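Form 7-S
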Amino acid sequence: MKQRKRWVWINPVAAQMSDPDVLARELARTGFIRVTAREDHAAAIRQFYRKMVTDLRLGGKCAGDIRCPAAVQMVRRLFPDAPIIFPDTDPILIRTAAELAGRLAAEGQEIEELQIVTPCQALCALGEKKAFPRTRFLTWKAFQQENDLQVPQKRLLASPVPLDFFRGCAEKVVSLEPWEKIEKWFQNGAVSGTDLAELLYCPGGCIGGDGI
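Output:
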Protein backbone atom coordinates (compact mmCIF):
# COMPACT_ATOMS: atom_id res chain seq x y z
CA MET A 1 0.00 0.00 0.00
CA LYS A 2 1.38 3.44 -0.96
CA GLN A 3 2.23 5.56 2.08
CA ARG A 4 0.46 8.90 2.18
CA LYS A 5 2.69 11.96 2.35
CA ARG A 6 3.06 14.24 5.35
CA TRP A 7 4.00 17.89 5.25
CA VAL A 8 5.85 19.84 7.93
CA TRP A 9 6.59 23.53 8.41
CA ILE A 10 9.25 24.28 11.03
CA ASN A 11 9.48 27.59 12.85
CA PRO A 12 12.79 29.40 12.03
CA VAL A 13 13.90 29.26 15.66
CA ALA A 14 13.75 25.46 15.80
CA ALA A 15 15.15 25.13 12.30
CA GLN A 16 18.25 27.20 13.04
CA MET A 17 18.92 25.24 16.23
CA SER A 18 19.37 22.12 14.07
CA ASP A 19 22.06 21.00 11.64
CA PRO A 20 20.36 21.40 8.23
CA ASP A 21 21.81 18.19 6.77
CA VAL A 22 20.84 16.10 9.79
CA LEU A 23 17.38 17.65 9.86
CA ALA A 24 16.83 16.97 6.14
CA ARG A 25 17.97 13.36 6.54
CA GLU A 26 15.73 12.73 9.53
CA LEU A 27 12.69 14.29 7.87
CA ALA A 28 13.23 12.09 4.80
CA ARG A 29 13.64 9.01 7.00
CA THR A 30 10.37 9.66 8.81
CA GLY A 31 8.40 10.44 5.66
CA PHE A 32 8.02 14.21 5.91
CA ILE A 33 8.08 16.74 3.11
CA ARG A 34 9.26 20.12 4.38
CA VAL A 35 7.24 23.01 3.00
CA THR A 36 7.58 26.79 3.12
CA ALA A 37 5.22 29.71 2.65
CA ARG A 38 4.93 31.34 -0.76
CA GLU A 39 3.46 34.57 0.58
CA ASP A 40 5.49 37.18 2.48
CA HIS A 41 3.54 37.17 5.72
CA ALA A 42 6.22 39.16 7.55
CA ALA A 43 5.84 42.08 5.13
CA ALA A 44 2.05 41.83 5.36
CA ILE A 45 2.03 42.06 9.15
CA ARG A 46 4.43 45.01 9.15
CA GLN A 47 2.15 46.84 6.71
CA PHE A 48 -0.86 45.96 8.86
CA TYR A 49 0.76 47.62 11.89
CA ARG A 50 1.87 50.69 9.94
CA LYS A 51 -1.74 51.30 8.99
CA MET A 52 -2.99 50.50 12.49
CA VAL A 53 -0.60 52.98 14.10
CA THR A 54 -1.69 55.70 11.67
CA ASP A 55 -5.35 55.05 12.45
CA LEU A 56 -4.76 55.06 16.22
CA ARG A 57 -2.45 58.06 16.49
CA LEU A 58 -5.19 60.60 17.22
CA GLY A 59 -6.72 58.25 19.78
CA GLY A 60 -3.62 58.26 21.95
CA LYS A 61 -3.50 54.49 22.25
CA CYS A 62 -0.67 52.05 21.65
CA ALA A 63 -0.79 49.18 19.14
CA GLY A 64 0.18 45.86 20.71
CA ASP A 65 2.16 43.16 18.93
CA ILE A 66 0.22 39.87 18.91
CA ARG A 67 3.20 37.68 17.87
CA CYS A 68 3.58 36.20 21.38
CA PRO A 69 0.30 34.85 22.84
CA ALA A 70 1.84 34.42 26.29
CA ALA A 71 2.77 38.11 26.49
CA VAL A 72 -0.66 39.20 25.23
CA GLN A 73 -2.41 37.02 27.80
CA MET A 74 -0.26 38.38 30.63
CA VAL A 75 -0.94 42.02 29.71
CA ARG A 76 -4.66 41.44 29.35
CA ARG A 77 -4.78 39.69 32.72
CA LEU A 78 -2.62 42.11 34.74
CA PHE A 79 -3.34 45.43 32.97
CA PRO A 80 -6.87 45.27 31.53
CA ASP A 81 -7.25 49.06 31.55
CA ALA A 82 -3.93 49.92 29.91
CA PRO A 83 -4.22 52.11 26.78
CA ILE A 84 -3.06 49.38 24.43
CA ILE A 85 -4.98 47.65 21.64
CA PHE A 86 -4.16 44.13 20.52
CA PRO A 87 -5.72 43.82 17.06
CA ASP A 88 -7.95 40.99 15.96
CA THR A 89 -5.46 39.56 13.48
CA ASP A 90 -3.20 36.50 13.36
CA PRO A 91 0.54 36.37 13.97
CA ILE A 92 2.87 35.34 11.15
CA LEU A 93 2.98 31.69 12.24
CA ILE A 94 -0.82 31.33 12.10
CA ARG A 95 -1.01 33.16 8.77
CA THR A 96 1.60 30.76 7.42
CA ALA A 97 -0.38 27.76 8.68
CA ALA A 98 -3.54 29.09 7.03
CA GLU A 99 -1.77 29.42 3.68
CA LEU A 100 -0.27 25.93 3.89
CA ALA A 101 -3.54 24.34 5.02
CA GLY A 102 -5.20 25.84 1.94
CA ARG A 103 -2.49 24.40 -0.29
CA LEU A 104 -2.85 21.02 1.41
CA ALA A 105 -6.58 20.98 0.64
CA ALA A 106 -5.82 21.75 -3.00
CA GLU A 107 -3.47 18.77 -3.21
CA GLY A 108 -6.32 16.31 -2.69
CA GLN A 109 -5.98 13.11 -0.69
CA GLU A 110 -2.30 12.34 -1.31
CA ILE A 111 -1.26 14.43 1.69
CA GLU A 112 -2.18 12.87 5.01
CA GLU A 113 -1.63 15.92 7.22
CA LEU A 114 0.30 19.11 7.83
CA GLN A 115 2.30 19.53 11.04
CA ILE A 116 3.18 23.06 12.12
CA VAL A 117 6.16 23.11 14.49
CA THR A 118 6.22 26.02 16.95
CA PRO A 119 8.56 27.22 19.70
CA CYS A 120 5.95 27.24 22.48
CA GLN A 121 2.77 25.75 23.88
CA ALA A 122 0.94 29.07 23.65
CA LEU A 123 1.31 29.20 19.86
CA CYS A 124 0.23 25.57 19.64
CA ALA A 125 -2.93 26.36 21.60
CA LEU A 126 -3.69 29.38 19.42
CA GLY A 127 -3.19 27.34 16.27
CA GLU A 128 -5.35 24.45 17.42
CA LYS A 129 -8.25 26.85 18.03
CA LYS A 130 -8.23 27.66 14.32
CA ALA A 131 -9.06 24.02 13.49
CA PHE A 132 -7.49 24.07 10.04
CA PRO A 133 -8.32 20.83 8.17
CA ARG A 134 -5.75 18.06 8.56
CA THR A 135 -3.41 20.43 10.38
CA ARG A 136 -1.74 19.88 13.74
CA PHE A 137 0.38 22.23 15.83
CA LEU A 138 3.26 20.76 17.84
CA THR A 139 6.16 22.21 19.76
CA TRP A 140 9.63 21.31 18.50
CA LYS A 141 10.10 18.97 21.48
CA ALA A 142 6.79 17.21 20.85
CA PHE A 143 7.48 16.93 17.11
CA GLN A 144 10.84 15.24 17.75
CA GLN A 145 9.45 12.86 20.37
CA GLU A 146 6.34 11.87 18.43
CA ASN A 147 8.28 11.12 15.25
CA ASP A 148 11.46 9.76 16.87
CA LEU A 149 13.68 12.33 15.17
CA GLN A 150 17.36 12.19 16.11
CA VAL A 151 18.30 15.85 15.62
CA PRO A 152 20.80 17.27 18.14
CA GLN A 153 19.98 20.81 19.19
CA LYS A 154 22.48 23.66 18.95
CA ARG A 155 22.51 26.53 21.41
CA LEU A 156 21.80 29.91 19.83
CA LEU A 157 23.20 33.09 21.32
CA ALA A 158 20.48 35.19 19.69
CA SER A 159 17.06 34.48 18.27
CA PRO A 160 16.67 34.39 14.47
CA VAL A 161 13.37 36.17 15.14
CA PRO A 162 14.69 39.00 17.31
CA LEU A 163 13.19 42.10 18.81
CA ASP A 164 13.08 45.22 16.61
CA PHE A 165 10.99 43.43 13.99
CA PHE A 166 8.79 46.55 13.90
CA ARG A 167 11.61 49.08 13.64
CA GLY A 168 10.51 51.79 11.23
CA CYS A 169 6.82 50.93 11.42
CA ALA A 170 6.04 53.80 13.77
CA GLU A 171 7.65 56.89 15.27
CA LYS A 172 7.96 55.43 18.76
CA VAL A 173 8.38 51.66 18.97
CA VAL A 174 9.22 49.92 22.25
CA SER A 175 10.61 46.37 22.20
CA LEU A 176 10.63 44.38 25.45
CA GLU A 177 11.52 40.90 26.70
CA PRO A 178 11.16 38.95 28.95
CA TRP A 179 7.96 39.14 30.98
CA GLU A 180 9.55 40.92 33.98
CA LYS A 181 10.50 43.92 31.84
CA ILE A 182 7.07 43.97 30.23
CA GLU A 183 5.36 43.96 33.61
CA LYS A 184 7.58 46.75 34.96
CA TRP A 185 7.00 48.85 31.83
CA PHE A 186 3.24 48.69 32.27
CA GLN A 187 3.46 49.32 36.01
CA ASN A 188 5.42 52.50 35.30
CA GLY A 189 2.74 53.71 32.89
CA ALA A 190 5.26 54.01 30.06
CA VAL A 191 2.73 52.70 27.53
CA SER A 192 1.30 56.22 27.24
CA GLY A 193 2.96 58.02 24.37
CA THR A 194 4.14 54.80 22.69
CA ASP A 195 2.93 54.06 19.18
CA LEU A 196 3.72 50.34 19.02
CA ALA A 197 4.79 47.83 21.67
CA GLU A 198 6.63 44.66 20.69
CA LEU A 199 6.41 42.14 23.54
CA LEU A 200 8.07 38.72 23.90
CA TYR A 201 7.41 36.75 27.09
CA CYS A 202 10.46 34.47 27.26
CA PRO A 203 14.11 35.37 28.00
CA GLY A 204 15.91 35.89 24.72
CA GLY A 205 12.63 35.72 22.83
CA CYS A 206 11.45 32.53 21.18
CA ILE A 207 14.75 30.69 21.78
CA GLY A 208 13.59 30.55 25.41
CA GLY A 209 10.20 29.08 24.54
CA ASP A 210 8.91 26.08 26.51
CA GLY A 211 8.67 24.05 23.31
CA ILE A 212 12.33 24.44 22.44
